[in-house]
Design a protein that fits this description.
Chain A is of the alpha/beta class and 511 residues long. In chain A, 54% of the residues lie in helices and 12% in strands. Chain B has nine helices and ten strands. In chain B, strands 6-7-8-3-9-10 form a six-stranded mixed β-sheet, with helices on both faces. In chain B, strands 2-1-4-5 form a four-stranded antiparallel β-sheet, covered by helices on one side. Chains A and B meet through α16 and α17 of A and α2, α3 and α5 of B.
Chain lengths: 511, 260
């Protein structure tokens, strides 16, 4: 039997992954004694994890002095810290990763509108509630057909990935859910007509949607739940201290003053006083019934993941096709275009290579509507990736064309061919063969870069993963599966690339 | 009757003149050999005739049997020739075939594909018709069994013979050979020169730049000596090789012949 290095490598990799699998089953690490409270006092400040991108009125940069953070949770953190005899400091983390970050020990507590839900309670301790939230449906001002959740069938509704509002929407039949990781974008998309409604926590709606003249509230707030401060499971002592601090803030009226300052106080908040007395009733308080996702067999996630993978393939393949064609146009402009055209092509290449793809996507999707061009997420994703990679393809082709000896063009011209014909028949086929390994390589890179389009509301494979993982907190096992899916898609490309390269080295020019 | 007339041709690379006032003409059916030391401008002159180089002064006239008025290549001072200039150059190239020192076969095409590419795509011949013509020509140079080989499977001599056939397939009225044997191994020089000799004897108008003095003496009708960008002497081979008038011609010939 012939020795095949490729197969050997894939065996080794699969073996490693299989060996790692048992660790997935031991995510519930035994919790032992911890002295976080002691550490906080020695350190002199309380570290709390939060996400500024979640925005106002929770935690956000002061519009008048962006170096300073403000928000009602900043006020609460300060009030708690004062009662612990320390100062507070916010640690930035993405909202979906707040609890994993807490468990890892990046900060002492996590506070950012984290809803107290049974599945989260399996993972972390929660303080007594510090706010009663409700969910508010928001529509465009001229919308008449939607007045409650019951009217949402067949409509596109935006919400925050992993939030309780997201789970409520999942219970409503026939809704097309569009998930976001920030709270500004869904309202912007709603106003631009890309969504029919947005369903999010009332404080968010109060801050972003209420002042927006293009939008209005649809019906009364629904659902009711509590925000709690998340604390590691072994930090019982810290939980006591924080509960005491919150109780004191309630009784002294400081908490109410904070909410009045942010225009968030309402009669519902009186429940906080009731909740503060009881200590162990919260585990049943979540109105939202979440399926016991942690116990779900892993294969049940496969259809969802495969759907995400399908979208990843779709986006990557079409983007690459766009990049290959556009790159060719660019390189021809650059090499044969004459002064103004060549300069334009060169500027395009430098700009697209010199700026982050993420920024390009934001401008394309959220920026262009300002000048009247509104793209849907899929076309924005394909155009964004395609235009970005076109710059790289153009440079690859240029390398390929320059590698073809000058004599080839001269021979073709001396036979009476036009420059165009000579390029098409003589130069480009040879250049393409030189550029091919690079093109395949870029295709593999694009596969993974396609995860960036989740910022423009595309739920491809990576986004599917973060949504599932934040809902179930099964980051490790789902992560391995998703990594395997990516690998399974890109590895065949690597093999094809290698075969082509070998073939090009040989005598045969025919592919 | 003159088929190519070159008048007062100047060619500069930047400030350096590489051709300094060339006046030369070639008659229909004539074989002109251009000899001279390396760097004297032989290649540049041939490339000017075929429009691969622009020149800054003078003109080149091509008299074709198919057009009533001669086609003229004019001096160009712009960096990029205009569309009209490019079309003129292309018309010239359809009349004037060229064979290069480095063969320049298309490596991604087989021998037969190399040959029929231009007849099919440029002249609009039918594929079968072009194939037939190509095979006839290949048979004449003894390569009819290499139809489906790729250039890198052929020896240098075979590649150059294919390159000659590729140029001939366009049925040019004039052939330019730019040092066609200079990059060949010595044992292959003969097979290529014998093909060129046959073409000349059949009456194909030919300009060949070469270091093969014997070939120039035996085959050419006329020899021009290019030295430092100027034609210093011109005449029938007997005169140039037996009784050169110019001192530089004598020293060049004695240097090159002593090497043998």
């Amino acid at each position: 039997m012939k020795f095949k290095p490729i197969l050997t490598i894939s065996y080794v990799i699969s073996l490693c992954l299989i060996l790692l699998l048992p660790f997935c089953l031991y995510t519930d690490i035994a919790y032992g004694f911890s002295d976080t409270l002691q550490k906080i006092k020695e350190r002199g400040y309380l570290l709390w994890g939060s996400d500024q991108e979640g925005g106002a009125p929770y935690v956000f940069p002061d519009p008048e002095d962006p170096s300073r953070l403000i928000g009602f949770e900043v006020d609460i953190a300060e009030a708690i810290a004062r009662r612990l005899g320390v100062r507070q400091r916010m640690v930035q983390n993405s909202w979906e990763s707040l609890i994993p970050g807490l468990e890892r020990g990046d900060y002492d507590i996590a506070m950012n509108g984290i809803e107290i839900t049974p599945d989260r309670q399996k993972r972390v301790l929660f303080s007594i509630p510090y706010y009663v939230y409700t969910e508010q449906l928001v529509v465009r001002r001229d919308e008449t057909g939607i007045n409650s959740l019951d009217d949402l069938k067949g409509k596109k509704v935006g919400t925050l990935s992993g939030a309780v509002a997201h789970r409520i929407l999942e219970q409503v039949e026939g809704v097309k859910i569009v998930v976001y990781s920030g709270v500004v974008e869904p309202y912007e998309d709603l106003a631009l007509g890309r969504l029919d409604a947005v369903f999010l926590d009332l404080p968010i709606a109060a801050y972003y949607a209420k002042p927006d003249r293009r939008l209005r509230y649809a019906g009364d707030p629904v659902g009711e739940g509590f925000y709690g401060i998340a604390i590691r499971r072994d930090d019982k002592e810290l939980k006591e201290a924080i509960d005491d601090a919150l109780r004191d803030m309630l009784l002294s009226g400081e908490l109410k003053r904070i909410y009045e300052k942010w225009d968030m106080w309402n009669d519902t908040q009186r429940k906080l006083y009731l909740m503060a007395k009881k200590t162990d009733t919260l585990s049943r308080s979540g109105e939202v019934t979440v399926e016991e996702a942690r116990e779900t067999p892993i294969f049940k996630f496969f259809p969802t993941l495969l759907k995400g993978a399908g979208l990843t393939v779709l986006i990557s393949v079409i983007s690459m096709a766009v990049a290959i064609v556009l790159g060719l146009i660019l390189v021809l402009m650059r090499l044969y275009g004459g002064v103004p055209i060549s300069t334009i092509a060169q500027a395009y290449i430098e700009i697209y290579r010199g700026t982050p793809l993420l920024i390009q996507l934001y401008i394309l999707y959220y920026g262009l509507p300002n000048i009247g061009i509104s793209l849907n997420p899929l076309s924005a994703a394909i155009i964004g990736l395609g235009m970005n990679y076109a710059a790289y393809e153009a440079e690859l082709y240029r390398g390929g064309i320059n590698s073809v000896s000058k004599g080839q063009m001269e021979a073709a011209l001396s036979l009476g061919m036009t420059q165009g014909l000579a390029l098409r028949r003589i130069i480009l086929p040879q250049a393409f063969r030189v550029a091919l390994p690079g093109i395949t390589n870029d295709f593999i890179a694009l596969f993974k870069d396609s995860s960036l389009v989740s910022v423009i509301a595309m739920v491809e494979l990576t986004k599917t993963y973060t949504i599932l993982a934040t809902n179930t907190l099964r980051f490790f096992e789902l992560g391995l599966i998703v990594a395997l899916l990516y690998f399974g898609m890109s590895y065949p490309l690597s093999i094809i690339a290698r075969r082509l390269e070998e073939r090009l080295k040989g005598r045969r020019w025919k592919l | 009757m003159e088929i190519i007339i070159i008048r007062d041709l100047y060619k500069y690379y930047g400030e350096t003149a590489v051709l300094k006032g060339i006046n030369l003409s070639v008659n229909r059916g004539e074989a002109l050999a251009i000899i001279g030391p390396s760097g004297s401008g032989k290649s540049t002159l041939l490339r000017c005739i075929n429009g691969l180089e622009v020149f800054q002064k003078g003109e080149i006239m091509i008299n074709s049997t198919v057009t009533s008025t001669p086609i003229a290549l004019h001096s160009v001072n712009k960096k990029r020739p205009s569309r009209e200039d490019r079309e003129t150059i292309r018309r010239v190239r359809l009349l004037v075939g060229m064979v290069f020192q480095q063969f320049n076969l298309f490596p991604h095409m087989t021998v037969i594909e190399n040959i029929i590419e231009a007849p099919v795509r440029v002249l609009g011949q039918k594929r079968e018709e072009a194939m037939e013509g190509a095979i006839t020509l290949l048979r004449r140079v003894g390569l009819e069994d290499k139809l489906n080989r790729y250039p890198d499977e052929l020896s240098g001599g075979e590649q150059q013979r294919v390159a000659i056939v590729r140029a001939l397939a366009m049925r040019p009225e004039v052939m330019l050979f730019d040092e066609p044997t200079s990059s060949l191994d010595p044992e292959m020089v003969g097979e290529v020169l014998s093909v060129i000799k046959d073409l000349i004897y059949e009456g194909l108008t030919t300009i060949i730049s070469t270091h093969e003095m014997e070939f120039a003496r035996d085959v050419a009708d006329r020899v021009a000596v290019l030295y430092g960008g100027e034609i210093i002497e011109e005449g029938i081979p007997e005169k140039i090789f037996e009784a050169p008038e110019n001192e530089k011609t004598r020293s060049f010939l004695s240097r090159i012949l002593r090497k043998r």
